[in-house]
Amino acid sequence: MISYIVSLFAGVGLWTALCVTLVAGLMRGFAGFGSAMLMAPIFAILFGSAEMVVTIVAIELVVSVQLFPQVRRDADWRVLAPMSLAACAAMPLGVWLLASVDKGTIVTAVSAVIVGFVLLMWSGWKYTGKRSMAATVAVGAVSGAMMATTSVGGPPVLLYLLSGNDPPRVNRANIVTYYFLTQFLLIVIVLATGVAGLDALLRGVVLFPVMALGAWVGGRAFHGLASERLYRNVALAILFATGVFGLVRNWLV
What we know:
By secondary structure, the protein is mainly alpha-helical. The chain has one domain (2-252). The chain has helices spanning 2-8, 12-31, 35-47, 49-71, 77-100, 103-123, 133-150, 154-161, 168-192, 198-222, 228-252. α2 packs antiparallel against α3 (35-47) and α4 packs across α9.
């Protein structure tokens, strides 16, 4: 059993994947976001872009399943329903790109998305347009395609949902619910098309306890010790460093 688990991670990749997942869990615990963005460029380098998508989405889906019952009553379904439907409709396009584009291009793309997201968060920029049906559907479609291609579909949704005047509990519920509604279908599509195999899903099963442990430690150890703004900036700094690494990796090897 142990040898099989090691084989799933190509030997050397096991310890790197465990460390990255633990840090991602800590980030999820103390900042509430960013775990997929941290794992994506590194897992794509370790396992390949298609395998990375299934592994990360499987880990995140378990978290979403745990959280959804707690938040479903606070979710704004008038926004989430059309956004989620648009995301699911755009996923086949993202899977086609996932199968057609080489790993290096996807690593560069996801790293650029992460760096751009961090810079926007640091700048304090917010979407100031109306939450019209057209805007909601467009955000969902872009997010769905990005999620299928890179596993990182959060930035457009986060920037869109956090731009309103909703209370924190509604924002949290909307984000958790959106992922809950879209992640399962994405795994089914990627596996059904043969772009990635079951080994990628099994990696997610192996890594999830590490993610859960990190999230628990992060929530227990860091909350209450400093300001929420400090936690967010630490998380953004880690994401920024990860994104920059993904962009310049070709010059480092």
